[in-house]
Design goal:
The protein has 68 residues and is mainly α. It has helices at residues 2-20, 28-38, 45-66. The longest helix has 22 residues, at 45-66.
Length: 68
């Protein structure tokens, strides 16, 4: 149950981040984020999706711990 709630919360946090960056996925934040996350190469589509969801779950858990 916790994983499902974390996944839902993570998707919300990813959507929130997309809104905050005005969906400019080629903008400075996302370019920096991709470079720091993956360095020189990109993983497969499945690995990328898994990594993005894990990042969203992490954001959700971090914000929940801080009480935001």
């Amino acid at each position: 149950m916790r994983t499902l709630l974390d996944t839902i919360g993570g998707i919300y946090q990813l959507a929130r981040l997309a809104c905050l960056t005005r969906f400019r996925f080629r903008g400075p934040y996302w370019t920096w984020r991709l470079h720091t996350a993956f360095g020189r190469g990109y993983p497969s589509r499945g690995e990328m999706l898994h990594g993005v969801l894990e990042y969203g779950r992490w954001m959700h858990r971090t914000r929940r711990m801080r009480g935001l």
